[in-house]
Specification:
188 residues, alpha+beta, three-stranded antiparallel beta sheet
């Protein structure tokens, strides 16, 4: 069973839920945009997030650093012509899907690339990547552009159970009204 949500809701829920699981604001922001992008273009973004939480032992925060490791590898590729990045344990595609697309738009090719990732979902593991300089992929030529437009127009169908797990985790980051009200009450 599915529920239809707005892409912005995915970003908000993943951000707050990630904060409740120990991610700092920057990591939670980056992770939220990666997960939402993956949910729109590959599916499985929310399932990957839940899987990382279920793995425990700080796996979510560790995986959230994936895009930053990818950015560091881009610097190496630009200075030497290529770079190899290994993720141990492998990362789910969901935490780096948008970053991979952005690299290709900046002229850094990835193997496996975003186009080969078309058959992958967010839960599929990415054990390593090869980066090499190439020609930038123009923004308007990506198959993902139509998917974004459809998601923003019609919403995203997501698994109801996974959405509820995400929502429950996000609720843990909120401060209850009772606490807020108590802060406003005069002390005697």
């Amino acid at each position: 069973m599915t529920v239809t949500v707005a892409p912005r809701e995915v970003v908000d829920q993943v951000h707050r839920a990630s904060r409740s699981h120990g991610c700092d604001p920057d990591l939670a922001d980056r992770l939220a945009t990666e997960i939402a992008f993956c949910e729109i273009h590959h599916g499985g973004g929310i399932a990957a997030w839940v899987g990382l939480v279920d793995a425990g032992d700080g796996r979510l925060a560790e995986a959230a650093h994936g895009p930053f490791r990818l950015a560091a590898a881009e610097v190496v590729a630009r200075s030497t012509g290529s770079a190899r990045l290994t993720f141990d344990p492998p990362l789910p595609l969901a935490v780096i899907a948008r970053s991979l697309r952005d690299l290709e738009r900046r002229g850094v090719r990835c193997t496996p690339g975003v186009d080969s990732a078309a058959v992958l979902t967010g839960t599929d593991p990415v054990p390593s990547l090869e980066l090499a300089l190439g020609e930038p992929v123009r923004a308007g030529t990506s198959r993902s552009d139509g998917a974004s437009e459809a998601a923003y127009h019609d919403g995203l169908p997501v698994d109801r159970t996974l959405w509820q797990r995400l929502s429950d985790a996000a609720a843990d980051f909120l401060v209850s009204e009772a606490i807020l009200d108590a802060a406003l009450e005069p002390t005697s």
